[in-house]
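thread from #wetlab-drylab

HS: before we spend reagent money on co-crystallization trials with flavin-adenine dinucleotide, can we at least see a predicted complex? here's what I'd submit
DV: go for it
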Amino acid sequence: MSERADAIVVGGGILGASTALHLKLQGVERVVLLERDGLAQGTTAAGGGLVGMASPLLGWGPEEDAIERYGFGFYAELADRGHEFGWRQTGMLLAATADAPPEVLPQALLDAERVPEARRVDAAEAQELAGIFDVDAMAGGIYVASGGRLRAQEAALALARRFTELGGVVDERRPVTGLLRDGDSVVGVETPRGRVHAESVVLAAGPWTNELLAHVGFRAPMVVLIATRVLTEPLGVPPTLPALMLFEFDYLWAREEGGGLLFGSNYECTPRYAFVDEPTPPRFSELPINGVLQTQVVGKAAARAIPALGRYETATVAHGGPAYTADTRGMVGAIPGVEGLFMVGGCNECGVTHGPGFGRLVAELVTTGRGGVADAAPFDPGRFGDRYPDGASIASARSVAEDHAVSG
Ligand SMILES: Cc1cc2nc3c(=O)[nH]c(=O)nc-3n(C[C@H](O)[C@H](O)[C@H](O)COP(=O)(O)OP(=O)(O)OC[C@H]3O[C@@H](n4cnc5c(N)ncnc54)[C@H](O)[C@@H]3O)c2cc1C
């Protein structure tokens, strides 16, 4: 059996669903989204769902500013169309306790030209916004009125629904097992249920993208690191809670979910680095719990700021494998030397925030060869040449780049 499309997207996480939708929005007629499992069951299923102005925090440029702002409007419009995915424009709050050094609140966020909607808040106002602090422990924070929170898995499903409403085709439980070549061009994909031919193929397979790129002899310099989230039982957390970050506690982040707290933090123990230079397993369901325990330790330490983190009794957990790059910027664009093949990935744990904009950017590159939402050059998958030959070298370059950005 052989099928034909104008464009194929491989991978139905938030980046693939967004790419497929944006290809339709840009007028591509026959777009097929192929997903190995069910939609949004990979890293997206574990996504925290904070959507905010991450760009100034991580030292990124006007390109990410534009991509993030596009995403805020995009999610709001999708929700206005009646899609339910827990979207709320709560804004983002970076808070600090009275014991934290002042530099824990990145000044870059207070650049009035770049982020006019950001302002300093004192402890009382931080508590008014969040409603979950021990106000006596707090110094205050920076509140950014844009952005908000959503449920990442439901958001990806909503994007896919909008894609099919526009005539796109979703084919689940259909893994791509090979890429069809004609000389230097990719002209389709191989699957166990037959070939699909197309002029353009976009790989959006998240932590599994490099397995597919191996078919054309290219390796995108990305490293897969495990990230973990914990969700408590209902604790009376208000749904208006802004997307919350307390950098002094290992970059703790949190949002409300079902009246409980959905939270995570950085951790350096296993399973964080389990797949740095190992193949990524197809599922993340059976990983060591050390990272979960460490996240809970961080949560307990933060309980002096957020008492609810000290009194929950049950928790569920989810793991994902964001793909990180050496300069912490995404990988969106054409694969060097291979006509017709593109990728969208290197999410750096911001794929929900950047999903709409990255999907639009790669769709623009497919249809016009140029970025419209933002300049595509900083995201070129070929930008590193062969500078980072393995996962370990990317992981160490990335942590230096991130530390430098956050400390200004
Ligand atoms: C704990 C945690 C918290 C996070 N918090 C946030 C946050 O607050 N804000 C934010 O912006 N981001 C956050 N992220 C990051 C965000 O979740 C990811 O950036 C995003 O989900 C990545 O989406 P993706 O589409 O690239 O990958 P995935 O969701 O993994 O999708 C890839 C898809 O490709 C499919 N696939 C793989 N191989 C094949 C094949 N051969 N054929 C067909 N299909 C294939 C997979 O089955 C999968 O569905 C968080 C991530 C984690 C883990």
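DV: Residues 62-80 form the longest helix (19 residues).
HS: ok that's useful, forwarding to the group
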